[in-house]
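To illustrate this point, what follows is a protein record of this kind.

___
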Amino acid sequence: MAMAKRVRDAHLETRTAREKLKARGKPYYKSIGPRLHVGYRKGKTGGVWVARFYLGKAEGEQEDKKDCYRVQKIGIADDMQDADGKTTLDFWQAQDAARAFQAEQNTATEPAAEAPPTVRDAVEAYIAARDARDSRRRGRAVRSDASRRLHRYVLGQGKRGKQEAVPASPLAGVAMAALTDEHLSSWRAGLPAALKETTKQRLVNDLKAALHSQRKQLNSALVVGDGLKSDVDDDDAVPQARENQILTDGQIGSLLRAAREIDAELGWDGDLFRLVVVLNATGARFSQITRMKVRDCQLAEARLLVPSSRKGKGKGGSITIPVEPAVIDALRPAVTGRAGDAPLLERWQHKQVAGSIRWVRDGRGPWQTSSDIAKPWKAIRERAQMPDVIAYALRHSSIVRGIRQNLPIRLVAAAHDTSVAMIEKHYAKWITSGLEEMARAAIVPLMPAPESGGKVLQMGSR
């Protein structure tokens, strides 16, 4: 059979052209053959492709009645991510999918309504938006953490390497308008028992965000949060900061020395050491310090400006952290002679030589994700003879250090870009011990001197 001719449309065939279209409920249709149209329905975060097949007029229908069509969603538009020919389609692939849809239709005269939006539709749209956001931030196409979690526990995924295929959850096929608390609570109860509560909570947050992004399609009587609540008490859902991850000054010194040695041995040119130095000096998250610019290192004032995290709404600006002169000295090579808007912390990027297993340096760029430090951190902690310590221990230790210095909890929270409630919840042990030390230091000796001259007298028996 001869290949169907491609039909062009200047408004639909490229994502740049589609960006100029207005979001609306009714699709933008293009005829691609007899009785067949491909349509593009644009939303706030991208669009979907639909196929429309003309069935003719129903028996007994007057000539002036509306024509009958069968309409079907055939894929996600490649607005946010590149087409894969399966679920995400470009304009040409959408035409092929529409023709395949037409070939499957029977000669029934009753029009079929477009399938109602399901949880799968909401989750797929959310994943596309998250992947696009993360790709913009990192300057390359990446798959978001939300995509990995939601595919594994909601949408399902095929076999990957040693990982077996995972079937879709029954929740994925539930219509949004029919979704109930029972559907959500049943899905949450069905999550693997071995899954950590912290992981479950991240997954729940992703699903809630996906459903809320399609709020207009939801059952109006549904309160999403009610069906997704954990049976575990909030205080037990998230583990407290582990005591073995609160490091002494001597342990931190050992880690910093090990970082400097590993940096030199592996040829990091100071990049690895500077990263660990800033993590320790600020107590900030990896995602915050990797967004720091050269201008955020103020040499004369011996301070660093750490960008606020992206958590929450309406946040912005920077957090001022004073640091010791040795930290400034370590960062001076990364600042001298560089533009103020350049990334403060960079590393060498590598590429593989074509036809070889050899990798070579390919320019410098910012650190991307916390996984970039996974292998060198393993070497650092082995050198420091601290095999169980995690990089996040530097943040834990910084918070506890502030508490032990009797700084106001509000100041400790602000310096670490978190809330007082989170500090009190996860570092309660150290707050309590600090309060005891303060209370003990405030004791005023008021007891009179013993009359016996300090001798201990035995009390008489009854």
Remarks:
- The chain has a mean pLDDT of 81.
